[in-house]
Design a protein that fits this description.
The structure is a homodimer of 222-residue chains.
Chain A (H helix, E strand, L loop, with lengths): L9 E12 L2 E8 L9 E7 L8 H13 L5 E10 L8 E9 L13 E4 L10 H16 L12 E3 H12 L5 H11 L2 E4 L15 E4 L11
Parallel strand pairs in A: 1-5
Antiparallel strand pairs in A: 1-2, 1-3, 2-3, 2-6, 4-5, 7-9, 8-9
The structure holds a DNA duplex (27 and 27 nucleotides).
Chain lengths: 222, 222
DNA sequence: TCAATAGTGTCTTTCAGACACTATGGT
DNA sequence: ACCATAGTGTCTGAAAGACACTATTGA
């Protein structure tokens, strides 16, 4: 590490905030307030504030709270996109993250956020379309081997809802019986007392569950 | 993205260059030429040269060639480490990569590089120990589901050597029969004509193979 | 009692792991 | 002929996927 002569690149974080909207895995976008592509919908993101953010993760949590109105949600680093061409302002580094939020938690900020299907978000500035595609790939790839998809559900949910979320995220049908078997073998859930029926069209009451661990990875697939 | 007032962080890339040395998965280190921790062994890395490197990947390839004397090897982005504390120079971003190289390709630069067991690299400056641990985790986690470990072998190798590499990387014994079956099911290899025996102590001559694709990922484990 | 989901049981196929076996050719 | 490695065949158990079956209760 010699030469400190090189100009420092711009450093931002960008967040692919995913939620389930009308049964479709969707990404939350925000109109850009400033400068390049002002007013155009783009990923939630911003500069790292070197005075207040100790880490990039903290910058992400701050930005999610300030600009997205959400906190205490699942966040994971995705990949870093760094090149001379991705931003008209010059050499830039985007430390990209993805985050999952149950739709309910977005209610307060629904007026400012724009939800688009994550599969086909339409045209986006910079390389944001690529970042979203990468996030989807990660979520789908890791989904079957982790409790990540469950982070799109509220804290308490039914077994069917859990199965449905996995089906939606993975984009494939799952067998109910096998799903139950695997979930209980893996010992991921704990029952919530005071069981009651949830979905309007269920006749028989359903057991409600909650995740035991905030997040777990396994090597069997669900 | 408002406020451009915030000072820009330092941006570097750091590379966990792994190879097999005396049967042990090892990491290649380089004495730091300058400033903080000058002379101390650390990961191969450097500043992004915003004038000549178009992307972070290019910076990595340049640095591997300049400082490690290797090129045309497997490289993959690992994770980005970014915080106010990881470097005494201030808020810094390290875009970390890992790379795999067959030991033979290191010969020319063996005099400058220091090889240490990747599992226990000893004390290292900054957060480099954490970066190495993260790289190992990735290589081991992804190893069983990809041809990544094969990148530690020369282009041409025997089935036994391939199995041995997987065993070493994964740190567990594999069944010869099952390994052969899976590798041939997955259709990863092509035979190399002019087969000959390689390892000194083999009686019967062995078929030599080469990877069909530069890199592939599957969802069965080897 | 019927509709609709909750939840269980079982069969078949596939794969992993273990291990015994045969094949080869340099020494 | 020996023997260490190359390479094959087979058995067992676990898990995946498919699907039929029973259970429950509001309407």
């Amino acid at each position: 590490m010699q030469d400190v002569a090189y100009p420092r690149p711009i450093v931002t974080v960008d967040i692919v905030l995913l939620t389930l909207h009308e049964g479709v895995l969707s990404v939350a976008l925000l109109p850009r307030p400033t400068d390049p592509c002002s007013g155009v919908s783009a990923l939630i993101g911003g500069y790292v504030h070197t005075d207040e953010d100790h880490t990039a993760d903290e910058a992400v949590r701050r930005i999610l709270k300030e600009k997205g109105g959400v906190e205490h949600i699942f966040v994971e680093q995705l990949q870093t996109f760094a090149s001379a061409e991705r931003d008209p302002r010059g050499w830039s580094v985007s430390i990209a993250y993805f985050a999952l939020v149950p739709e309910g938690k977005l209610e307060s900020s629904r007026s400012t956020l724009e939800l688009r299907p994550a599969d086909s978000p339409g045209a986006l500035p910079f390389d944001h379309a690529t970042i979203i595609a990468t996030a989807l790939e990660r979520v789908r790839g890791k989904g079957a081997y982790s409790t990540i998809p469950a982070r799109l559900l509220p804290d308490v949910f039914t077994m069917s809802e859990l199965k449905d979320i996995y089906q939606t995220v993975m984009g494939q049908r799952l067998d109910q019986s096998a799903f139950r078997r695997k979930v209980s073998d893996l010992d991921l859930l704990e029952k919530v007392e005071g069981e009651k029926r949830q979905t309007a069209d269920a006749r028989r009451p359903t057991t409600l569950y909650r995740l035991k661990e905030p997040m777990s990875v396994f090597d069997r697939r669900l």
